[in-house]
Amino acid sequence: MEQSFLAWLRGRQANLPQVKVGIGDDGAVFVPQAGKELVLASDGIVDGVDFLADQHSLAEVGRKAVAINLSDLAAMGAEPAAILVNLSLPTRSATEIAAACYEGILEICDQYQVAIAGGDITVYDGPLAISVTAIGHVESGQAWLRSGAKEGDSVLVSGAFGGSLLGRHLRFTPRIEFARRLRAIGGVHAAMDVSDGLSLDLDRLCASSALGVELDMEAIPIHPDAGPWAEQQGGTLLEHALGDGEDFELIVAMEPKAAQRAMAAEAALPEDVRVPLTKIGTLTGRTGLWMQKTGKLERLSPSGYIHGEQ
Amino acid sequence: MEQSFLAWLRGRQANLPQVKVGIGDDGAVFVPQAGKELVLASDGIVDGVDFLADQHSLAEVGRKAVAINLSDLAAMGAEPAAILVNLSLPTRSATEIAAACYEGILEICDQYQVAIAGGDITVYDGPLAISVTAIGHVESGQAWLRSGAKEGDSVLVSGAFGGSLLGRHLRFTPRIEFARRLRAIGGVHAAMDVSDGLSLDLDRLCASSALGVELDMEAIPIHPDAGPWAEQQGGTLLEHALGDGEDFELIVAMEPKAAQRAMAAEAALPEDVRVPLTKIGTLTGRTGLWMQKTGKLERLSPSGYIHGEQ
Q1: Which of A70, B44, B86, B239 could bridge B235 with an S-S bond, Cβ 3.0-4.6 Å?
Q2: Which positions are annotated as binding Mg(2+) 2 (chains A, B) (predicted)?
Q3: Rounded to 5°, angle at Cα A119 from A37 and A248
């Protein structure tokens, strides 16, 4: 099926200038923008771990495989340009599954003008798995690293947290356009996206920058989905916001005045465009996560999803 | 295991200038060479389809996952620069399997000075699968496409064909250095690597260029492994050379005088460096594969491995 499927895929794709030669040769020819650096991200999802093929729409599954990688590019401050997709398909109904997944892949690629530069397909005796590599452009030296945060930086988060497994983990908006607006404002020292849990990922950002954070626990934006999810699973809303993960929102460490400007600018946007932007803490020299509690600082243990622990 | 494993991997890797920020952030920062284009290739291998984890050395399996992608870069005339690796690991012994595969991945990356720019790991209820994306540099406009062959071009092949499943499919040399020498000679109009079968892949190259080929069947180089493999499987040596696949040699369409120069230059190299280079036919305007037989042309049906047919 591979050859005929790839021919179908070629026909469905828009021609984009960044890819001179696309699917159908031994490799694709990609034209990088002069003077820019590239950000490369690669992440896969697997049936039974990251989604459930018998419950979720396969178009949404395909979309998610791309979106998690676009989220990584956004977290690096990069503009997406191209992806490569490796599909591992269970033998039964392989072609139908591939076509259904690609509906979502094509849709999100069209939305963000991302070229599909490669598409390998394997049919095997195993669960549906989609592995995606994404390539984006960033101005030379301007990528947002986890390690760049400075003491005194404001810690901002986009959106709200918790209960993403109710469905948002499949349908979230990768923060590409929001990251573009932050770049225009400037003053971003570090960023990352929340895949494993707000507190766990924030702890990693702090560790990369050899800093800690003093959190304003009451400011942490809790998603409406956290309520019904907590009712199903137990635990408090805050625990779910801190540890559920798969929110795919951005944590940003920003120079405090730029952070103020960013929040004001975002709030001034039309409701259908703006992304809620909240200051949840300040970076400090004392490593670890800290919270104010009855007048003194207490240490918060990071919680979230640790890959490869089952 | 993912975080600690990736930390181990970071420590094992050489620092290479093309990757400014490697594993450990949301993405890697890659510095493209000024004025060049990039070739992107992505291909995966799966236990039970492309190797047998209980029979093959996992280091060789890891090496193969990289080598098949380097072979694609060589077939495009590109110099490899970086790879990204997605490992899907069966739950049992996940860490040991990952470490064993990476022995081979690190070895071949070291050999060709390729940076590991990303390394995602998923533990799941399925067979070992390794998906690799490779990135290489090529002079602007100089990538070797399947579609560039011209009528009258000589068709050359590197190496010899058949019986690769006896073990060569795991241990082949991707033709990176050979491709570099061909670039220096010039006159290459089209190229591809043989993964699915010499006749099937040659037929694809011809179709992409809207040409056909007149083959000199006696010139087709048959690998010594074709003999024992034919004894096991039945069939003639030539049938195995034409259809076995996984040889990962190059088919090259070259301007005839440049082809002569290339064969002479290769033959003049020391034995441990040179790659056998053989002219097996000439490209013609009449599409399809053709062979001389008792004085007239007969059509040859392409044979090989069709992906996704089981």
Answers
A1: B239
A2: 43, 72
A3: 60
Interface touch A27/B86, C-beta < 8 Å: no
**Which domains, and CATH codes, for chain A?**
2-139 (3.30.1330.10), 146-300 (3.90.650.10)
What is the 8-class DSSP label of residue B308? T
| Distances, alpha carbon A214 to alpha carbons A152, A160, A266, A298, A299, in Å | 10, 19, 24, 10, 9
Chain B residues with CB under 8 Å of A145 CB are 21, 25
Q: Which of B171, B132, B105 is nearest to B40 (CA)?
A: B132
Contact of A114 with A19, CB cutoff 8 Å: no
CA geometry: angle A124, A125, A128, nearest 5 deg: 75
Q: Tokens 């068709």 map to which residue? A: B155
CB contact under 8 A, A29 and B38: yes
Question: Looking at the partner chain, which of B1, B94, B193 has a beta carbon nearest the beta carbon of A26?
Answer: B193
Give the tens place of pLDDT for each residue, A118-151. Answer: 988 999 999 999 999 999 999 999 999 999 999 9
Residues of each annotated binding site of B: 26, 42-43, 50, 72, 102, 119-120, 146, 193, 195-196, 246, 305
Strands A277-284 and A154-158: antiparallel
Q: Give the position of tokens 């042309």.
A: B297
CB-based contact B307 A1, cutoff 8 Å: yes
B 138-167 residues with CB < 8 A to A: 138, 143, 145-147
Question: Residue A222 carries which DSSP code?
Answer: B
pLDDT above 50: residue A1: yes
Q: pLDDT-derived band of residue A310, with 50, 70 and 90 as boundaries? A: very low
Residue A78 sits at the chain B interface (C-beta within 8 Å): yes
CB atoms within 10 A of CB A39: 30
3-state SS class at B195: coil
Please tell me the distance from the alpha carbon of residue B42 to that of residue B72, in angstroms, as a whole number.
Answer: 9
B119 closest CA partner among B101, B93, B137 = B101
Nearest to B40 among A30, A37, A94 (CB): A30
CA distance A164 to A223: 8
d(CA B10, CA A98): 34
**β-strand pairing of A36-46 with B188-193:** unpaired
